[in-house]
């Protein structure tokens, strides 16, 4: 509530003072607004019809001098914001990979916002740190991670919540760089450090997410892409990595980091970590596993074999905020040896010191990440894990996989289309048999229609449409409706273009 003070002649505006009484009322209204939005989301056009810069003309050039009312702000949500929203939680959204959305996580985020602590050290808010360590252990146990990755009370390893998979990849790369330099200096103390870093070489698949290549750019190290092909289902083969390492060593380079992907972004391919891991271990190369999307599925026993070989990894990460019903941001990362991370990033200015930090009993998560500040993100894991239970989470993953299989059957039953990669989880890569031009035109028509939303990928030079199961509320009827639209547009395109 915003108000005025003073008598009739000397009215003085003062700033917004939404008090607790007002907050209770508005908070309940906001919950209703959110529930209405999500309940009716499928009636909205999934992809917005706006031009770049659309928003600037809808709001003033400057922030208001005097306070607006809450009603004014709420009114502008439909006028200003919603026209430019891509509705990621519409059951007609099939682009990218999912981003999680559940009621327990949203409520936990409200509480996190209210507590509003910045948990960079144990002392900065003990519950923030301790719940995170235990939640990472809970999740690690759901995934049946090797004991080495579980913190427990005396473990050498453990988990941390990063903001994104990109950060996890970078943090692992920086820790690996530090470990490699220290190992070389230990045996050759006279060698100049710059002479070592300029020779370092890291590897990832040519199917890896671009954030991996970017991590190499940020860290200032060579990043080589390992070629994959269709005959190997776009997975990195042990033999290819071994050959590249030998060639690079012969050329005087120092291999130090390999980022394997489980569930690549284009086609959800899985690198052969049971072959790759022993090679990395023998060469003292840090193996990081990026399973940003697929990682959530490993809580199901039938998908857990995809993670076999994890025992060879130094670090492992996936986005619980993608497919595990924990809203963004919650990128869960485990390391076997926490000292590898802490040793790489430790800074201890006086103003951050506290009584317990040398006790060996506590974790100061600021040493595990790039920023200092961190939100109380484990609350949303706690709410979600308790309110869904492992069984509820497994059922959710299985439902998406079943829907993907249903969509795959629809595609396979139509002779005009082909499936472009194995459907293992909730992603179906498909295309019209024919030219890239036909497929590009089809995708453009689909997205211009704005009823469903998909994005493409390139596999072996072919333009492919990706159909990713995303929303929590997607049902069989949505899949069938999407397929009806796709085939109707395909018919139009095929009549117009040679294929
Ligand atoms: C395999 C993979 N790695 C990394 C990323 C990047 O994720 P983030 O936005 O969390 O950095 C993605 C995004 O979809 C991905 O699919």
TrEMBL record:
Pfam families: Pyridoxal_deC
CC terms in the record's Gene Ontology section: cytoplasm
Cofactor dependency: pyridoxal 5'-phosphate
Domain of life: Eukaryota
Enzyme class, spelled out: lyase
A molecular-function term among this protein's GO annotations: aromatic-L-amino-acid decarboxylase activity
EC number from the UniProt entry: 4.1.1.28
Record-linked Gene3D superfamilies: Aspartate Aminotransferase, domain 1, dopa decarboxylase, N-terminal domain, Type I PLP-dependent aspartate aminotransferase-like (Major domain)
Pathway membership, UniProt: Catecholamine biosynthesis; dopamine biosynthesis; dopamine from L-tyrosine: step 2/2
Protein's UniProt keywords contain Zinc-finger: no
Matches recorded under SUPFAM superfamilies: PLP-dependent transferases (SSF53383)
Record keywords, A-Z: Catecholamine biosynthesis, Decarboxylase, Lyase, Pyridoxal phosphate
PANTHER family: AROMATIC-L-AMINO-ACID DECARBOXYLASE, GROUP II PYRIDOXAL-5-PHOSPHATE DECARBOXYLASE
Name of protein: Aromatic-L-amino-acid decarboxylase
């Amino acid at each position: 509530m915003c108000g005025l003070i003073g008598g009739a002649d000397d009215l003085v505006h003062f700033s917004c003072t939404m008090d607790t009484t007002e907050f209770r009322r508005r908070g309940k209204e906001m919950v209703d607004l959110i529930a209405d939005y999500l309940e009716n989301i499928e009636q909205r056009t999934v992809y917005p019809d706006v031009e770049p810069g659309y928003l600037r003309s809808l709001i003033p050039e400057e922030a208001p001098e005097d306070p607006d009312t809450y009603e004014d702000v709420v009114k502008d949500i439909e006028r200003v914001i919603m026209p430019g929203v891509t509705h990621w939680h519409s059951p007609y959204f099939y682009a990218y990979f999912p981003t999680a959305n559940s009621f327990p996580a949203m409520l936990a985020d409200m509480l996190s916002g209210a507590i509003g602590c910045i948990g960079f050290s144990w002392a900065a808010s003990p519950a923030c740190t301790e719940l995170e360590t235990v939640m990472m252990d809970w999740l690690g146990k759901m995934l049946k991670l090797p004991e080495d990755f579980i913190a427990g009370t005396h473990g050498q390893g453990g988990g941390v919540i990063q903001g994104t998979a990109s950060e996890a990849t970078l943090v692992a790369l920086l820790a690996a760089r530090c470990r490699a330099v220290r190992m070389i200096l230990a045996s050759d103390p006279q060698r100049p450090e710059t002479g070592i870093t300029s020779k370092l070489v890291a590897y990832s698949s040519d199917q890896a997410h671009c954030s991996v290549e970017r991590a190499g750019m940020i860290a200032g190290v060579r990043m080589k892409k390992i070629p994959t092909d269709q005959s190997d289902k776009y997975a990195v083969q042990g033999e290819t990595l071994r050959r590249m390492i030998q060639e690079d060593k012969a050329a005087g380079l120092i291999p130090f980091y390999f980022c394997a992907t489980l569930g690549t972004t284009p086609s959800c391919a899985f690198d052969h970590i049971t072959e790759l891991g022993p090679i990395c271990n023998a060469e003292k190369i840090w193996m990081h596993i990026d399973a940003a999307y697929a990682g959530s599925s490993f809580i199901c026993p039938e998908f857990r074999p995809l993670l076999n070989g994890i025992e060879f990894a130094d670090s492992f990460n996936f986005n619980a905020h993608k497919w595990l019903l924990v809203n963004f941001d919650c990128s869960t990362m485990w390391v076997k040896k926490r000292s590898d991370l802490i040793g790489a990033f430790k800074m201890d200015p006086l103003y951050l010191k506290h009584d317990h930090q040398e006790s060996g009993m506590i974790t100061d998560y600021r040493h595990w990440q790039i920023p200092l500040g961190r939100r109380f993100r484990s609350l949303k894991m706690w709410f979600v894990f308790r309110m869904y239970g492992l069984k509820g989470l497994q059922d959710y993953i299985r439902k998406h996989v079943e829907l993907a299989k249903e969509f795959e059957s629809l595609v396979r039953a139509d002779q005009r289309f082909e499936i472009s990669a194995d459907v293992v989880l909730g992603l179906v890569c498909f295309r019209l048999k024919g030219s890239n031009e036909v497929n590009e035109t089809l995708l453009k028509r689909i997205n211009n229609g704005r009823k469903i939303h998909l994005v493409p990928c390139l596999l072996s030079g072919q333009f492919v449409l990706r159909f990713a199961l995303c929303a929590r509320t997607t049902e069989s009827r949505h899949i069938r409706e999407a397929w009806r639209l796709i085939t109707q547009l395909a018919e139009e395109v095929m009549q117009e273009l040679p294929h």
